[in-house]
Design goal:
The complex is a heterodimer of chains A (about 90) and B (about 230). Chain A has three helices and three strands; from the N terminus they run αβαβαβ. By secondary structure, chain A is of the alpha+beta class. Chain A has a three-stranded antiparallel beta sheet, covered by helices on one side. Chain A is elongated and about 55 Å long. Chain A starts with a helix and ends with a strand. With about 230 residues, chain B is an alpha/beta fold. In chain B, the strands form two sheets. In chain B, strands 2-1-3-4-11-10-9-6-7 form a nine-stranded mixed beta sheet, sandwiched between helices. Chain B has a two-stranded antiparallel sheet with strand order 5-8. The longest helix of chain B has 16 residues. Classes of the chains: A alpha+beta (about 90), B alpha/beta (about 230).
Chain lengths: ~90, ~230
């Protein structure tokens, strides 16, 4: 049975923002990882790109939470000059 | 009254003191500005110094760009206030979209620290008038994220409009330090008032503590430019 508190608390959405260097942008960190892997016995790895993942809990409806996360990504989480981002609901 | 040049201190700034000292050696009056204050205290120009503002968290300069002082710096810059961003300051200017492009991890992934020869590309900016175009100068370069990037169209435009302020002069002794596009070490806005520079002229203002005095020109330039800049505003 749902408690009173649950019933009246605002909706909470778990949102993920993934930020990756643009394909045409050099990724020295990804390259370094790719070069280290054969030494560890992982052969056959063609390319590695390194990015960032942000997980957020936002008190809003799903549409509103996704809209807010995209706005955050555009202004702060990603630099649109060098990075692309993708916003989606967690799970 | 000598020009009053503000130097912003962010949490994690390193070279604010050296920048203030360079202003003083050039004959100006340095004014310490604090990141959390939305007040330029009437300065004639602003320097964003090197360092690791906010620990370089997220991306270099990404958090500093939203500091209260940056609101007045960005507004001022759009109205003609001269701004010089050195190293981390250059990264902040790019993040604030006052300058095009971005600075990413050095191609060799190593933090480099060298006395770097540069070729001055544009000696007509508010910060470089003491030099001549094509002049070779040596100033320290010390960074981990100094690889300048912009898309080809932007790079073409920067070159065509003389907005490459300085380039790395590669030779046998000084290989390419960080992989920057077209060896760009510094760029400016269309008016030449806002300049971003990865190397550190404030560390080359006297022979005792630096490779020479080649960096002093950035600070004497702005002191010469200040009355003209103010008259034009």
């Amino acid at each position: 049975m749902r408690s009173r508190v649950d019933r009246y608390s605002p909706p909470v959405v778990r949102v993920v923002v993934e930020v990756m260097p643009k394909p045409e942008i050099l990724d020295p960190q990804g390259q370094a990882i790719a070069r280290a892997l054969p030494g560890l016995g992982f052969t056959g790895v063609g390319a590695v790109r390194q990015g960032k993942r942000f997980e957020m809990v936002i008190e809003a409806t799903e549409d509103e939470a996704l809209r807010q996360a995209a706005a955050m990504a555009e202004t702060l989480l990603a630099n649109p000059v060098i990075e692309d981002f993708r916003v989606h609901r967690q799970g | 009254m000598p020009g009053r040049i503000g130097v912003v201190t962010f949490p994690g700034s390193l070279d604010d003191r050296d920048a203030r000292r360079a202003v003083r050696r050039a004959g100006g009056t340095p004014v310490a500005l604090w990141h959390a204050e939305e007040d330029l205290h009437g300065v004639d120009a602003v320097i964003l110094p090197g360092g690791f503002s906010y620990g370089d968290y997220l991306r270099c300069g990404a958090i500093a760009r939203f500091a209260p002082i940056m609101r007045v710096v960005v507004d001022g810059a759009r109205d003609g206030l001269p701004v010089l961003g050195i190293c981390n300051g250059f990264q902040i200017l790019c993040e604030a979209h006052l300058l095009p492009g971005a600075l990413i991890r050095n191609v060799g992934r190593r933090f480099g620290c060298v006395d770097q020869p540069l070729i001055v590309g544009n000696a007509a900016t508010a910060w470089t008038s003491a030099y001549t175009s094509g002049q070779r100068i040596v100033v320290p370069l010390k960074n981990g994220e100094g690889c300048y990037l912009a898309d080809e169209r932007v790079l073409d435009e920067l070159e065509a409009t003389g907005r490459v302020v300085a380039r790395y002069a590669a030779d046998d002794e000084h290989p390419d330090p960080n992989g920057s596009a077209r060896a760009i070490a510094g760029v400016c806005n269309p008016d030449g008032t806002v300049v971003g520079l990865m190397p550190h002229p404030e560390h080359a203002v006297e022979a005792l503590t630096g490779p020479g005095q080649d960096g002093l020109g950035f600070f004497t330039s702005i002191l010469g430019a200040v009355p003209g800049v103010l008259a034009g505003r």
